[in-house]
Amino acid sequence: MTLDLAERGEYRAARACVMLFVLSTFISYAYVFGTGTYNGDFYGAPEKLGFFGQTGVLIAALIPYVFGWYLYRYFKSKNQRRTVRVPYQSVACVFFIVVIWFIAIAMKYDVGVIGRDAYVAPPFIKFIIQISNRINPFYIGVFFILTNRESRKTLWLGIVLLLALGMLRASLGVFLYVALALLIRNYREIASCVRRNKMKVLIASLLFPLIVSQLYSVRGTLRGDRPAGSSPPISEVVVGKLAGRLSSFSDSALIFQKSGYFESAVNRLDDLYFFKQAFGGIFGAEFIPEVTPERMLVNVSGGDYVNVSFMTGLPGNLYLAWLLSPAVFILNLSLVLLMCLAIFILARKLRTPLANEFALVLVLYPLTSGVGNEFSSVIISLLSFLLIFLLLTIFNKKNRKVASNFS
Question: What is the pTM assigned to this prediction?
């Protein structure tokens, strides 16, 4: 694959995004052997799979990223036809309308706030919320960062609003999306800055664990979590919690470790649970089954959480599908492959130089979590973007035509 200078920067930026998740997986793997306990969602839980079991889970956890990377490389080498023009001046307008709307309903009705009961709103407002929920504000936020051609002030205002929405929803995932988007957008500048300011980068690296620790503390307060005794060391937060959130290694490993429990519990799952989850990601949460692998996992120790779930990771999810039957496994694996292809195909319909990188950023987290509705929510969001920009293009053409008739 021959790349020009600009494409080479995009290629390296995309590789850096993938490597962030790969590195987090290796850190989680090393953490397990260094401490004898899991990190992430099961921080402190003892591991009992042993070297060969954990290594097998490591290989399984890396395969989705290898697939995502080669999918990116394949589409990067292909030209795209029949694309939808992106009116860049309108992207910022659409983004600000969307993010301000979601901030308003998060503050007023707790829409999207993690750990809260289902929101209650007047019928008309609820109808608008259900329609607008087809657009993920963080996905359009990534697109805004990648394509923004306005002033730096506009860009940073948009980022601040995105982060504010993430904190209102008691979620730190928005920081990941912003970081990946900025890495893609400014890779060459970032790489040059790192080379020229090694001492400043070192100082920032030393402060990073403290910042992460404070963010987790704020998130715990927003979610109303109870303090769990003494807090872990600040450095432990990065490898024990942050790396565990960027990797599904511990979640998948625990499923294999408790295979005896899941072999019997899996009978509570609908054979079409993954399909229904994906369907729910498009048409609404009410279509998602009451029993899902993520809810089973969070309650594996006998809890009764309803509004909280733990990602199973793609290997863990597919293993549970295999326990149901080989046919369910093949169906779910096929759906994952088809939805990944759909994400790249739809993202590439947007006429922008960073369409492939945009698709890669959006597909990496679903490949990590393995949750059906996270794949499908990307697809419906991309379809919404295509429809919005197509309508804006048609509207702009009509306005120009009317203006020319009066000139």
Answer: 0.90
